[in-house]
Design a protein that fits this description.
The chain is an alpha+beta fold. It contains twelve helices and 13 strands. 29% of the residues are buried.
Length: 336
C-alpha cells in the first residue's frame, strides 16, 4: 500500500501540494491543470477537481477510479481553523481510519454517509483499487461559517455546536438527507461553462453546509429547536408580501436588506424554510391567486392589478408561460 501524506485548507496551495505528494509517493507525474489533477493512466482516471469558491470556502469533487492501492493520510495541523465535510455517494463504502485508531465505513447509503472533521485531527482514507470514488468535500474556515451561517441559528445547547465554539478537535459521521444527496449529485454532474461553474458550485456548497449544520442541530434538539431571529424576519416578510399581494414583490436584494442579512444568507435560509427559491415561491403564489380570481369571474385586467401587475400584457404572458394557456382561455374553460 502506498501512503500519501497531505494536509488541507480552503486555498489552492494545498491542492498543488497534494499533487506533489501524490507524485512523490506513487512515482507518477501528477500535476494541476486549471482546477483539476491531470491523473496519469497508470494511477487513476476520472475527475479530481478543486475550486476556491469564496474567501474561506472551497469544494473538492472526486469522481474517479484509482488503479493503485493508496492510503491518503491526512496529517494533523495545529489549531482548528479549517473543517471538512465529506459526502460519500460512491457505490461502495469508504474506509476511514480515525485518529482514535477506530476504522469506520463511510456508508454508500444515506445512513452515516457524511464525515465531518477539523484539520487538527488525523485521519486516513482508503479509496480502494478499481472502485468508483464519488464524493463531494467542502472545506471551510471557521470564520466563514460563523459569519455566513451560524450567527443566530446555532444553539450552543447542542453538544457539537459547543465543541465548534470552543475550538475542540472534531470527528464524527452523520446521515445524508435526501436534499443534500440531490445537491451532491448536482455538483458531481455539473456541466456549466468554466467561467460560471464556480458560481454554480458556490450555491450548492453554501446550501450543503447550511443543511449539514441544520441537521446536526435537529438530531439533538428535534422539535425543541428555537426559530432564529433571522428565520423569524423571513417568515414575517413572507407573510407581509402574501397579505399585500397587489404590491410589487421586493427584489432579492431588497428582501435581504429588510431582513438585515446578506443576499446569499437570505437565499439559503429562504430555501431552507420553504423548499423553494425566493422568486419562484412568490411567482407560484401569484399565479395560483390569479387562477382563483379568474375562476371567480373577475376580468383579466382586474385580476392582473389585484396580484401586482400594472402591465396587463406582461401578466398575460407570465400566466401563459406558467399554465400553458392565456388568462382569457383559462377563464373561459373554468367558467364553462
Amino acid at each position: 500500500m502506498i501512503e500519501v501524506d497531505y494536509y488541507y485548507s480552503s486555498s489552492m496551495k494545498w491542492f498543488i501540494d497534494f499533487a506533489e505528494s501524490l507524485s512523490k509517493a506513487t512515482g507518477e507525474n501528477v500535476i494541476v491543470q486549471g482546477n483539476r489533477l491531470a491523473l496519469p493512466c497508470g494511477l487513476a482516471e476520472g475527475r479530481y477537481e478543486f475550486y476556491e469558491l469564496t474567501d474561506g470556502l472551497s469544494i473538492l469533487i472526486t469522481d474517479c477510479v484509482f488503479f493503485k492501492e493508496l492510503q491518503l493520510h491526512r496529517q494533523a495541523v495545529p489549531g482548528n481553523d479549517h473543517y471538512k465535510i465529506l459526502f460519500n455517494v460512491s457505490n461502495v463504502p469508504l474506509i476511514i481510519n480515525k485518529q482514535s485508531g477506530r476504522i469506520v465505513n463511510i456508508s454508500s447509503s444515506l445512513a452515516e454517509a457524511v464525515f465531518f472533521s477539523s484539520h487538527t485531527t488525523e485521519v486516513s482514507l482508503y479509496p480502494g483499487i478499481g472502485k468508483q470514488l464519488r464524493t463531494v468535500q467542502l472545506i471551510f474556515h471557521r470564520s466563514w461559517a460563523i459569519s455566513h451561517l451560524l450567527k443566530n441559528i446555532a444553539p450552543l445547547s447542542v453538544t457539537r455546536m459547543q465543541q465548534f465554539a470552543n475550538y475542540e478537535p472534531m470527528q464524527f459521521t452523520t446521515n445524508l438527507d435526501l436534499k443534500s444527496n440531490d445537491l451532491v449529485e448536482e455538483a458531481l454532474s455539473a456541466e456549466a461553462p468554466a467561467y460560471t461553474l464556480p458560481h454554480y458550485l458556490e450555491g450548492c456548497a453554501i446550501e450543503l453546509v447550511a443543511l449539514f449544520f441544520d441537521n446536526i442541530i435537529e438530531e439533538e434538539l428535534g422539535e425543541e429547536r428555537i426559530i432564529s431571529d433571522d428565520a423569524m424576519r423571513i417568515i414575517q416578510l413572507k407573510e407581509q408580501i402574501e397579505n399585500n399581494i397587489e404590491d410589487p414583490t421586493p427584489t432579492m436584494d431588497e428582501a435581504a436588506k429588510i431582513c438585515l442579512m446578506s443576499r446569499t444568507r437570505f437565499a439559503v435560509m429562504f430555501k431552507t424554510l420553504y423548499n423553494s427559491n425566493y422568486a419562484t415561491y412568490f411567482l407560484n403564489m401569484r399565479m395560483s391567486k390569479a387562477a382563483e380570481l379568474l375562476a371567480s369571474k373577475l376580468s383579466v385586467t382586474d385580476v392582473g392589478h389585484k396580484i401586482g401587475y400594472s402591465n396587463i400584457g406582461h401578466f398575460a404572458k407570465v400566466f401563459k408561460e406558467h399554465f400553458g394557456v392565456t388568462p382569457k382561455l383559462f377563464q373561459k374553460d373554468n367558467l364553462g
